[in-house]
Structures are given as structure tokens and as C-alpha cells.
Amino acid sequence: MNNAELNQRRQDATPRGVGVMCGFYAERAENATLWDVEGNEVIDFASGIAVLNTGHRHPKVIAAIEKQLQAFTHTAYQIVPYESYVSLAERINQRAPIAGPCKTAFFTTGAEAVENAVKIARAHTGRPGLITFGGGFHGRTYMTMALTGKVAPYKLGFGPFPGSVFHGQYPNALYGVSTEDAMNSLERIFKADIDPKQVAAIVLEPVQGEGGFNVAPADFMQALRALCDRHGMLLIADEVQTGFARTGKLFAMEHYGVKPDLITMAKSLAGGMPLSAVAGRAEVMDAPAPGGLGGTYAGNPLAVAAAHAVLDVIEEEQLCQRAQRLGQHLVEVLQQARKTSPEIADIRAQGSMVAVEFNDPAGKPSAEITRQVQQKALEEGLLLLSCGVNGNVIRFLYPLTIPEDQFTKALGILSRALAQ
């Protein structure tokens, strides 16, 4: 069995709509390393799209899953509950940057968490409207596609989408969009599209993921909080990609001194197991009637056990602090490369949520340069992901547990790819 044979089988057996980036097939993995079916070794700076902040197969995560596997694998929490779900909710309630008493409900995917946050917000406010932002990504279900601020490839051919969803501008210094511009775009929505008293919530990523790792300015987040308070809207922080130490805090909202009403989370919550959650103010979370929230696999016991282990690892191995240190080192390497690479238009970072953006010599966004850097890096065994509305951004999502020598090796590969 080799990569070429598997690739042919994939093309014959699966639809083209499930896009696949790499031409090689994983056989095993350990921490920040992947091996394919032909024995080739790759340093993983993708982490399954930000799912593996604690690395592939962390021993504590494996042990927690194995222990739960010996007890039971499924009861459906809404039928027969279990203590581990309750205690995980208690742990998140203690750590989530929510004002006052907090409650948490568990689901399976990030999109499911966002969908349920919308349900909770509408139930609490009695309002239909939702405001989100261009460049944001919130999922692939119909409601989350409507919230997502990027058409290709996520919305192509799939409309119409749910109504009462409106997109404002997200601040972006490189493209000349200030906090004032962004807030003015919301006022235009209120004048042209929907009365603010009909808006249930504003939904945003503190750092846009697929949109290019655009970091929300502090004054923007503060202005949104004030706007929500003025009009009785909820502020929903989509932390599916930013959560669990990636930005140097357990949650990115901790950087802002602003507390949202609801937080969605998934990805690195359970170290590779499918688990998501919504945490929020208790009176908001209690708005839906009993039976209004849930799901057959929501809060699966194996995934919950893994999440307990993930929280332990983040604390014991000080991954928030390590995210800050590794991210700072990476930014220094990128800044050094920028001195001799005029194609680098911008470097953005919050902890280890780091991105570099490329323009062509005419100053236009260049997806081609981005692809070239990716390819050069992969030729030397470093897996990188792109993102951005124009596909011209490389984002770095290494496990926060990556060994120091491997991280140094990866940065050397990156430096050579940028130089070429």
C-alpha cells in the first residue's frame, strides 16, 4: 500500500466536495510528528486544524480514554447521565471568562456549538437577528454557513441560507479597516437592514481563524460589549479555534478584559476526540426549555474523559506560558525573514496563534506565493496550512507540546522556504 494507490482509491470512493490537501496518508503520529504509509516523517504544524494543542496521542489523554473505555462508551447523557460530564462542566464554568454564575452544555462539533449558541441567544432575547463579520468562519451547517463571512468554498451552490443574518466589517489594519470603520458598518446595518432591538446577538471570533488570524483590537471588543449592553444584545465569542491555550490564555477573551455572554468551544477541548461546548451566563443558558438542547452523541463519555485530561495537561505543562514563548520565537524568525522577503506583507500573532501574509510585487494578495512557501516547506518535511479570504496567509498551528529541538528544526525549514 502506497500513497498513490490510496489516492486513486479515495478519488474512486469519495466525493470531490470533500477536499483533501495532502497527497500522503497518515499511518501513525506522536506529539508533533506524523508518519505516512510509506514511512515518510512530517513535522505537523497543522494539528488537525488546531485540534491538537496537546499533541498527537498525549499519554494522559490516551490513559483517560482507555480507562473510560473499560467502564462504558455511550449512554446518551440525556437518557442516563454521568458524573464526568457534570464535573467537566464545573471545571469550564470556573475558568470561562463569563460574568457571574456560569453553566456549560456539551455537543459534538464546533458548528453544533455555534448553532446551539444561536438557539440559546434567540430563546433568551426573543429576537431573531444575528450580526457577524466578513472573513469570519463559524461552520458548515446551514445556520453557520449563513454566519460565515466567506463564500468560496463554503457557500458555493448551497443557498439559500437562513435569514436575519447580517455581516459587518472586521477591523484589519493591513487593509485600512479601523475599529471606527467596523463600528460604523454596524450602524449602517441598523439603519438599512434591522432594528438593533431585533438583534439577538453579535457573534465573532476574537482572532479570525479561516479569515487569516486577524486579531480583534481591544477597543473593538470593548465597543462591541458597550453596543450589546446598550441594545440588550448578547455578545457571543466563537472560540472554537482560539480556545485551550492557543493564544497564551485558556480563552482568547481573557486578553481583552471584556466578558462575553456566551462562548463556543471545540477543537482542542478534547485532544482529538469530537467534543464541543457552549458556556455562558447561567440565566442565559437556562433560557431553552428542558429537551431544547442536546444530541445523541453530545458529551460522549470518551471525549469527556479526554477533555478532563487535556485541562490537566494544559495546567501541569504550563501550555499557556509555553504558547506565549513559542509564538514569540516564531514571530522573531518571521520578522528576520521579512528583512529580505518583501513579499511578507504582515505578521500577526496572539500567543501561538501566528500568521504571515503575502503580497506580490504589485502589492496584491498572493495565494501563489503562499502555495510556494507551503510546498517548499513540505519538501523538507514541514506541514503548513493556509487561510485568509484571499488564500494568501500561512497560519501556524503546531502542538504546544512540541519538543524544543523539533521546533527549532521546523523554524529552520520555514526560514529556508521563505528565503526561496
Describe the structure.
The structure is a single chain. The protein has 420 residues and is of the alpha/beta class. 38% of the residues lie in helices and 17% in strands. The chain contains 13 helices and 15 strands. The chain has helices at residues 3-13, 47-50, 59-69, 83-95, 110-125, 142-147, 179-192, 218-231, 282-285, 301-316, 319-338, 367-379, 404-419; strands at 26-30, 33-36, 41-44, 102-107, 129-133, 165-168, 199-204, 234-238, 262-265, 276-281, 344-350, 353-358, 382-383, 385-387, 393-396. Strands 4-10-9-8-7-5-6 form a 7-stranded mixed β-sheet, with helices on both faces. A 4-stranded mixed β-sheet has the order 1-2-3-13. A hairpin with a 2-residue loop joins strand 11 (344-350) and strand 12. Helix 3 (59-69) packs antiparallel against helix 10 (301-316) and helix 7 (179-192) runs parallel beside helix 8 (218-231). The longest helix is centred in the C-terminal third of the chain and has 20 residues, at 319-338.
- Main beta sheet: 7 strands, mixed
What's the N-to-C terminus distance?
A: 34 Å
Based on CA inertia axes, which overall geometry fits? Answer: globular
Helicity range of the residues? 25-40%
Q: Average pLDDT across residues?
A: 97
Low-confidence stretches: none
Fraction of residues in β-strands? 15-25%
Strand order of the largest sheet: 4-10-9-8-7-5-6
Strand elements, count: 15
Order of helices and strands: HEEEHHHEHEHEHEHEEEHHHEEHEEEH
Radius of gyration: 21 Å
The number of helical elements comes to 13
Q: Give the class from helix and strand content and strand pairing.
A: alpha/beta
